């Protein structure tokens, strides 16, 4: 659980997070008065002939395509956030508008998902609900009672859970599944991180054709992937294929067409034009292979990287815009050998007590409870591990809160930063993260190697997260722009809540 690092979960981003907590749901049960008003709305929808008539229909905050959002839905979302202890802005109108914007986006996603056939069957939904009860060490009846006690009918809870799953699956299909990450991007990311962490630098070597100007190089590659842990036979076969492609490329054939043909024969083989890049933005291995190669020429040999074998061709070289090299700061590159090297990192062994975000537990209550546990541990009247077994609300509780050895970046930022400030044996003050409130104790630290394979895995995860955030926001904007939305009365609460 602690390995998740989803920076998109903002305060208004969801009312149903049942996988993390039982009751993070909006209390959307409709009373009989509201139901009658809804029926009235349905009967009069076709009579929307002017803004004044639309505004006279009590209860509707916005019309979204063929559906609508009521003011009571906004009220219910506010109540839920308040019960969860969320810190809400004091401006009530601004808050209602922000929540309405979120509800509009959710409504559009559900409408689009329905049109595209994204569904969750009753059988599948019932299994998910049962799994939630099991994960929270409850019977189904216990779960039902807990939900009903919160003011939401069990059927309403299941429907909101269904909607949350549908939106998640639709988002995964439309955004996450379309994110592509090339090996060149991973190589560049690792190089950039090395520079950012203070790697040894030297001026980039001069290149042919630069004519006194900073240079950009357009490189294309055909890439034959191979697992770093694969046996000698597999490695030799991949290298043989790469060398065969290099020989073919030396003939009278278009390089990208050759790559396309190879990819069709074997979908694992990738071909790509990297576009114009300055030397410092090319992987070091690539630049060393093509630094003295002119436009339209192939690298003399196949390039071996931790990910596999690369056949490279320089499509073009040109002077970069922006003045002569004498007017610019010298381009820098990381001094590395052609063979990637393992990096030494500090790993931390820690344990924690987690109180999850949930209805009925405010931030103040959670912080006060954890401060009490800390006082007991510091006074040596209680053992941290025993307290974790008894009170921690995640899977680590059975192990006394032990999280195992963690590397930099494995934990959410708030937790990791607090943990890094602790000495061995020290216990932190209460720490808030997206998952709830934590009490942290560091047990030990050690030096370990971050292997090349692990570096690439971490780089790929970071690139994917960065790309997802941008792609997700772009996707939401496109959905919103393509929808027909009419804002009616968002500022007033529903009649029943005044």
SSE blueprint:
Blueprint: H1 32-44, H2 51-55, E1 60-64, E2 67-70, H3 71-83, H4 92-115, H5 122-135, H6 140-149, H7 154-174, H8 183-196, E3 201-203, E4 213-225, H9 232-249, H10 255-265, E5 270-277, H11 284-290, E6 297-298, E7 303-305, E8 308-324, E9 332-334, E10 343-356, H12 363-378, H13 384-391, E11 402-406, H14 413-420, E12 431-433, E13 436-450, H15 452-482, E14 485-487
Antiparallel strand pairs: 1-2, 1-14, 3-9, 4-5, 4-8, 6-8, 7-8, 10-11, 10-13, 12-13
Helix pairs in contact: 3-4, 4-7, 8-15
Give a short synopsis of this structure.
The protein is of the alpha+beta class and 498 residues long. The chain has 15 helices and 14 strands. Strands 4, 5, 6, 7 and 8 form a five-stranded antiparallel β-sheet that branches. Strands 11-10-13-12 form a four-stranded antiparallel β-sheet, with helices on both faces.
Percent of residues in beta strands: 15-25%
**CATH topology-level fold name of the largest domain:** Triger factor/SurA peptide-binding fold
Shape designation: globular
- Give the tally of structural domains: 3
Provide the low-confidence segments as ranges. 1-57, 195-213, 322-340
Tally of contiguous helical segments? 15
Residue share in helices?
Answer: 40-55%
Structural class of the secondary elements?
alpha+beta
Write the H/E string, N to C. Answer: HHEEHHHHHHEEHHEHEEEEEHHEHEEHE
Major sheet attributes: 5 strands, antiparallel
Radius of gyration: 29 Å
Question: Architecture of the largest domain in CATH?
Answer: Orthogonal Bundle
What top-tier CATH class of the largest domain fits best? Mainly Alpha
Q: What is the straight-line distance between the termini?
A: 40 Å
CATH homologous superfamily annotation of the largest domain:
Porin chaperone SurA, peptide-binding domain
Mean pLDDT across every amino acid position:
76
- Using DSSP, what is the number of strands? 14
């Amino acid at each position: 659980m602690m390995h998740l690092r989803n920076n998109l979960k903002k305060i208004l981003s969801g009312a149903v997070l049942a996988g993390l907590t039982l009751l993070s749901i909006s209390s959307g049960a409709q009373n009989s008065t509201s139901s009658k008003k809804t029926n009235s709305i349905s009967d009069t929808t076709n009579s929307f002939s002017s803004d004044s008539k639309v505004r006279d229909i009590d209860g509707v905050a916005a019309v979204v395509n063929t559906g609508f959002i009521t003011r009571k839905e906004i009220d219910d979302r506010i109540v839920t956030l308040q019960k969860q202890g969320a810190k809400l802005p004091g401006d009530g109108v601004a808050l209602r508008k922000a929540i309405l914007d979120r509800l509009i986006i959710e409504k559009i996603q559900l409408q689009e998902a329905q049109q595209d056939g994204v569904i969750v069957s009753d059988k599948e939904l019932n299994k998910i609900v049962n799994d939630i009860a099991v994960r929270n060490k409850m019977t189904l009846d216990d779960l039902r009672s807990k939900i009903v006690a919160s003011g939401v009918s069990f059927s309403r809870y299941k429907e909101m859970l269904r909607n949350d799953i549908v939106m998640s699956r639709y988002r995964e299909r439309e955004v996450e599944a379309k994110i592509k990450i090339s090996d060149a991007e991973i190589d560049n990311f690792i190089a950039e991180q090395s520079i950012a962490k203070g790697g040894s630098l030297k001026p980039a070597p001069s290149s042919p054709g630069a004519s006194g100007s900073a240079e950009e190089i357009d490189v294309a590659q055909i890439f034959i992937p191979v697992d770093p842990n694969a046996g000698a036979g597999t490695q030799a076969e991949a290298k043989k294929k790469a060398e065969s492609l290099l020989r073919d490329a030396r003939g009278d054939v278009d390089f990208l067409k050759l790559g396309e043909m190879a990819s069709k024969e074997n979908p694992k083989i990738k071909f790509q034009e990297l576009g114009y890049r300055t030397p410092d933005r090319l992987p070091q291995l690539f630049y060393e292979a093509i630094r003295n190669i002119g436009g339209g020429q192939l690298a003399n040999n196949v390039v071996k990287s931790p990910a596999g074998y690369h056949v490279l061709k320089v499509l073009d070289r040109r002077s970069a815009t922006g003045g002569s090299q004498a007017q610019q700061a010298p381009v820098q590159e990381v001094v590395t050998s052609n063979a990637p090297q393992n990096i030494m990192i500090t790993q931390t062994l820690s344990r924690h007590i987690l109180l999850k975000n949930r209805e009925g537990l405010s931030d103040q209550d959670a912080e006060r409870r954890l401060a009490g546990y800390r006082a007991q541990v510091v006074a040596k009247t209680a053992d941290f591990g025993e307290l974790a077994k008894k009170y921690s609300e995640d899977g680590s509780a059975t192990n006394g809160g032990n999280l195992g050895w963690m590397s930099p970046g494995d934990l959410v930022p708030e937790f990791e930063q607090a943990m890094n400030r602790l000495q061995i044996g020290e216990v932190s003050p209460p720490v808030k993260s997206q998952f709830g409130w934590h009490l942290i104790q560091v047990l030990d630290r050690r030096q370990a190697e971050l292997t090349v394979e692990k570096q690439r895995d971490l780089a790929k995860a970071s690139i994917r997260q960065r790309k997802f955030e941008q792609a997700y926001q772009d996707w939401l904007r496109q959905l919103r722009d393509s929808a027909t939305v009419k804002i009616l009365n968002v500022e007033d609460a529903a009649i029943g809540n005044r």
